[in-house]
Amino acid sequence: MSSAIRIRDLRKSYGDVQALDGVDLDVPEGSFFGLLGPNGAGKTTFINVLVGLVRKSGGTAEVFGYDVEDDYREARDRIGLAPQEFNVDRFFPIREVLQHKAGYHGVSESEARERADEVLKRVGIYDKRDTRFDWLSGGMKRRFVLARALITDPDLLILDEPTAGVDVQLRHELWETITELNDGGTTILLTTHYIEEAERLCDEVAILDSGRVVEVASPEELMDRGTDDIVVSLRDEPTAVPDFAAEDDRVEAVELDGTKLVVTAREGGLVAPDVVRKLDAAGHEIVDLEISRTSLEEVFVEMTRTDEERATERSSDADDAPSDATDDGGAGDAAAMEAER
Amino acid sequence: MSVDRTGFYALLKREVLRFVRRPRNTFVPPFITNVLYFSVFGVILGERINEISGVPYILFILPGLIVLGAVSNAFENASFSIFHGRWNRYIEEVLTSPLSYRSMVGAYVLSSATRGIVVGALVAVIGAFFTSVGVARPFYLVAFMVVVTLLFASFGIVGGLWADDFDDLTMMNQFILRPLVFFGGVFYSLNELPTLLRQVSLLNPMIYMVNGVRYGFLGVSEVNANLSLAILTALTLAVTAVNVVLFRRGYGLTD
After folding, report:
1. Would you list the domain boundaries of chain B?
2. Cβ-based contacts under 8 A for chains A and B
3. Where is the ABC transporter domain (chain A) (predicted)?
4. Where residue A315 falls among pLDDT bands split at 50, 70, 90?
5. Contact B96 A148 (CB under 8 A)
6. For A255-275, how does the pLDDT look when each residue is reduced to its tens digit (9 = 90+)?
7. Cys staple from B60: which of A155, A173, B52, B166, with CB 3.0 to 4.6 Å?
8. Quick check: helix, strand or coil at residue B223?
9. Cβ within 8 Å of B, A 69-108
């Protein structure tokens, strides 16, 4: 599949600060691609390089094969952008703003009028067509910037935090709209702080941290890298439980608290049947079973922790280690390894 | 490319509509100012001043007031439109479009020059109520009006890109534009000045603009009209080219 976005060694520096530090990325045509990262990771800078609002310091960036600087007109014509910060013309009613934007992209006046009405209806603010942007509510403003991104019928729709600050109902409506667009073949590049949003919508996500891509994978692949908790409630408090960890290297910890047994394991859904079988074979009666899946958010937080945060956690684990080490010689090392993972 | 032509017209239309729909901000102030200029300088003081270059004082200042109104408004329109778009970031609607940089600059310059010409015409109409005025050299009148408004629209774009806040816009108007205009031969003849001051004044581009338009109206000029027109045209092309380079480099527009 060809790439909607192809980035090689993309760099952007502001003085000594490296906002983008050698980004390599391919976004397949037709995909729903998420760009995740903590504040200051470089997500908006990355997007702004594509649309021409930030000039790169080095590397190459192409949109549908067009270089964003050398072939800027072809590249920009294919992009619809709904930015995080509102940047809307406040002199004109919103329908006219849309007509102007369509005009800048070469759409004739008559067609621009039709398209403006169409996209305003699509995002549900047609009855506000003669209102200026400043007089719209927060949710309507979000809808409007999506409408403006759609008026040019883009092949690549870039949504920078499209649901920031909107209520749950609107968020679901926006999700539905952009999913429909993606089903129709539009490539979507989404940045979001709502991990659930990426989990639900994206085929693939890139995690950006300190101006670098630290991972590109599907949300499912990322979640499989975390650990799940298999929580088993037993009828009676057992005196001993089978040694799950010895027989399955996916099991990382076992904890017994009264009648509640918690098995922490990678691929928890696959490990759970074994746990149940072994408990049953050992004569334990199970009254309840629950698998608590790791969330993308937990994986994301782990991947984007700073070295300082890791060091702090290691030192805190090390402080706890001596008393454990007396009982269990490997516990301190295990904690350090966990922190490294 | 038709995308560029359609886009250029769309931006030109947007820019013209912006000032047409806000007459209280764009046309009423020069109307009031010029009624005052003609009343005070033309009628009250003018009757006490002898003829200059063979014409009554009120007729002598009329071309200067037209140039003053036209270039101030062309400059103000371009600098405000660019700066306000940057300040509120809606200029990004244009910057993220497939419009060529030449078309962007062309639309901003042409729309601002249009406002300058409309204000110039407004001043002429006001002047016609105070004195009888004819046009001796229509070609020169039109040519100078077009060139001087285009030139100051182009300067306005540089100002709009350079300004960091609204105070910078006021500063450019008060400390650069206004002194140039007032020492540009609007209200007095170069012949009235001592030799040294006269030589210094010839460095002020406004002298050539005012005299060019005066030549169009009255057929008299204190400098060579053809040479003035050629120099001003060359300057306009140069500043417009600078505008395109600034847009291409993203000066004041991109990070």
Report:
1. 2-249
2. 94
3. 5-235
4. low
5. no
6. 888 889 999 888 888 888 988
7. B52
8. coil
9. 72-74, 76-77, 79, 81, 83, 85-92, 97, 99-108
Q: What is the pLDDT of residue A318?
A: 53
- How far apart CA A101 and CA B128 sit, in angstroms, is 42
In whole angstroms, give the CA distance from residue B77 to residue B70: 11
**Residue A303 burial class via C-beta count within 10 angstroms: exposed 0-12, middle 13-18, buried 19 and up:** middle
Chain B nearest-CA residue for A90 = B90
Task: Out of A52, A79, A89, name the one closest to residue B90 (CB).
Answer: A89
Question: Residue A247 corresponds to which amino acid?
Answer: E
ipTM score of complex: 0.90
Question: What number of other Cβ atoms are within 10 A of residue B225's Cβ?
Answer: 21
Q: How far apart are CA A67 and CA B77, in angstroms?
A: 34
What is the topology classification, in CATH, of domain A226-296? Alpha-Beta Plaits (3.30.70)
Contact A105 B97 (CB under 8 A): yes
Q: In this complex, is the C-beta atom of A226 within 8 Å of any C-beta atom belonging to chain B?
A: no
Whose CA is closest to A232, among A182, A173, A274, A275? A275
CATH match for A3-222 among 3.40.50.410, 3.50.30.80, 3.30.70.1710, 3.40.50.300: 3.40.50.300
- Closest CB to B97: pick one of A55, A76, A112: A76
Length of chain B: 255
What tokens appear for B138 in the block? Answer: 């229509």
- Buried (b) or exposed (e) across A254-280, using 16+ Cβ within 10 A? bebeeeebebbbbebeebbebbeebbe
Which residues of chain B make contact with A104, given a CB cutoff of 8 A? Answer: 7, 10-11, 93-94, 97-99
B-interface mutation test, from A68, A79, A91, A132, most B Cβ less than 10 A away? A91
Q: Name residue A157's beta-bridge partners.
A: A80, A188
